[in-house]
Amino acid sequence: METTPLSFISHSNDLNNPIRIADLEDFENEYEDDSMKKLDDIITQEEEDSFAGDFYRCGTDWSCLNSSSTSANKRLKQCNLFESWKLPLKTNVEASTSIVPDKKTIQAQKPQQQRACPFYKKLPGTPFTVDAFRYGQVKGCSAYFLSHFHADHYGGLSKAWSHGPIYCTPITGRLIKMCLYVNPLLIHTLDLDVEYVIEGIKVTMLEANHCPGAALIHFNLPSGQCYLHTGDFRASKLMQTYPLLLNQRVNVLYLDTTYCNPKYRFPLKEKVLDFIVKVTKNMLKKQPKTLIIVGAYSIGKESVYLAISKALTVKIHANSSRRRILQSFGWPEISGNLCTNGNDTPLHVLPMSSLKFEILEKYLKSYSDRYTSVLAFRPTGWTFSESTGSELDSIKPISKGFVTIYGVPYSEHSSFTELREFVQFLGPEKIIPTVNVGNAATRNKMQSCFQEWSKK
Ligand SMILES: [Zn+2]
């Protein structure tokens, strides 16, 4: 009964590092961009300044979108970029093989070394970095931006953080204070859609359509250069109406390329929510004593359980740590629908890592006086499969005993087509991918996409 829609589970489990931050229990890192961390590791082998200098001076095929503005002889071929990284050429030869040394090798070689901040987290011509907290003090950085509260972005932040002021949205600011005990004096919150001037540079946070508090960060330099850092985002039509994006050319786009591959064709979030509600109602017709469980990261996927809550007019049960976080958003729609006692509602939220048969069977037993079966949803873009495409009805759950688990393609990152549309709308001069950049073959594919998009 194993089916392709859930084949992602083995992948996810490999990366499944439950974290204990402060008093949070059993929350899971959103390690969808693990390869980004691998690139961080590579760059420790290189002097950060010379690498960044080479990169920005020369440009590369994969970062240059606007071919007309760049003469061909100024470009470096991809292999030259690797040479500038001082990566072993032997591994480059095989395009399909990762050039990244395995983690054990890296750890054995440099067990104690502080990793250097990779170039794509620094904004040239500014004293700013984005999502760069795990590198200690970054040379020349006097303002550290945080795009959103997911562990692979805030990694390195703690109550011991002392390297400089942190700029983020108010929701993210509350979360790093509440969950990570970051010194409140270092947290500077920026409201969405308001222009601030920081170190002489105009900065505006824009809704990123990712998780609560997530922002696209727009930088307008005195030189006239304009950067957009997407953090993690799901591109939407609404973004094409943002005045800042409509009215000014973006010179450099730092792009969340989590699903920058044509095979990722998952449907709109709204369609997936309708599907989830339909499946839930059908199940309850057949088996009224069903406990509905939604898997979620520390934050994100709220719309999934809110949709079920509305459709069934039931409350949402989550443990005390998650309730605290959800209440911190200040959204009455969520705060007013939470309940503390799991016996009071058939809709429960659990960490994504708990969506395993053994765990859910035990969970069901603890509610055996009320429920006889479990219907669980695992919402993530990784559930996509070629055979499923956007035909939601063809998604097959996996079942064992009284537990049924659906993997649903509910993604808080852009699909391939959404990415393309967003990039073509923006028409940036240069794109710097921030995810899946640790593999040569993937980088080359992304480069081809960017070039293709620039022609249309
Ligand atoms: Zn994220």
UniProtKB/TrEMBL annotation:
Transmembrane segments: none annotated. Belongs to the DNA repair metallo-beta-lactamase (DRMBL) family. It comes from the Eukaryota. It comes from Daucus carota subsp. sativus. InterPro entries: DRMBL, Metallo-B-lactamas, RibonucZ/Hydroxyglut_hydro. SUPFAM superfamilies: Metallo-hydrolase/oxidoreductase. GO terms for cellular component: nucleus. This is Metallo-beta-lactamase domain-containing protein. Gene3D superfamilies: 3.40.50.12650, Ribonuclease Z/Hydroxyacylglutathione hydrolase-like. Residues 114-264 form the Metallo-beta-lactamase domain. It holds the Pfam family DRMBL. It is found in: Nucleus.
